Amino acid sequence: LRQRGVENWDRAEHAKIVDRLTADGARLLVFHIVFCEPRSPATNAIFAEAIKKNGRVVLAASLNPQARGQILANIAFGPDEELGAAAAGVGIAECEAPKGEVARRYYLGNELQPSLPWTAAVVAGAPITKTPNARPRDTWLKFYGPARTLLHISYCEINDQPPGFFKDKCVFIGAMPKTLR
Known about the structure:
Layout: H1 11-24, E1 28-31, H2 41-54, E2 57-63, E3 75-77, H3 81-86, E4 89-92, E5 95-96, E6 104-106, H4 116-124, E7 140-141, H5 155-158, E8 170-173
Parallel strand pairs: 1-2, 1-8, 2-4
Antiparallel strand pairs: 2-3, 5-6, 6-7
Helix pairs in contact: 1-2
């Protein structure tokens, strides 16, 4: 798509993908990319509108490394304000991966700063999120797994899929294996 690094992409390209996945009936879209850098107001608006129209997009935020362990006010990199307001939810995408592993242990979060996986589960309507005091003790997400554990499709291949391919699927968007910011 003639873009340089996912974190620097023209947000209109992300909007096109969200629109395609919306038209296809994807159940949930989770961006494992922190959209904190300023961009063109016009393309930002296009992306925000696509997010809002979908209604089931979760965006990532990141913690300030110097503020870890503190409650509140430790989000250093949240999504751009316009994008965050358009999203169905925002979750902390901080995670650690044991050396040589692809499983990730996510920041557990709290009521005011939930983790990205917990926010995704809430937006998806997962039954565990409806149980009082159900916040997990550990948050591990193994969606990348060994090579090709789950289907991986490049951005430039999304439009090559047949209509309905993404229907009822939860789609995680980002670069493996780290959160971009």
